[in-house]
Amino acid sequence: MTNDKIFGEISNIISKTLNIKVNDLNLNSGKNNILKWDSLNQVKIILAIEEKYKIKFGTDNFEDLNNIKKIVEVVADKKSASK
Description:
Number of strands: 0
Oligomer: single chain
CATH architecture: Orthogonal Bundle
Distance between the termini: 11 Å
Low-confidence stretches: none
CATH class: Mainly Alpha
CATH topology: Non-ribosomal Peptide Synthetase Peptidyl Carrier Protein, Chain A
Structural class: mainly alpha
Strand content: under 5%
CATH superfamily: ACP-like
Radius of gyration: 12 Å
């Protein structure tokens, strides 16, 4: 699975969770520049990603997963490690 594909899927999850346009998202989008990305919505985003990819994030990862670029990188790492 390519990072571009992961980016697209994660963007869709975030778009639906935050009720924003997917075209407004890029790799730098995150809680620092999206008002709706608060701690509650971050939990919802993480849970949706865990369900989609059948992976688990440790609590130590939680605070680090605060923008799309970091999420894509961690998901790609977890997916490649599970092969």
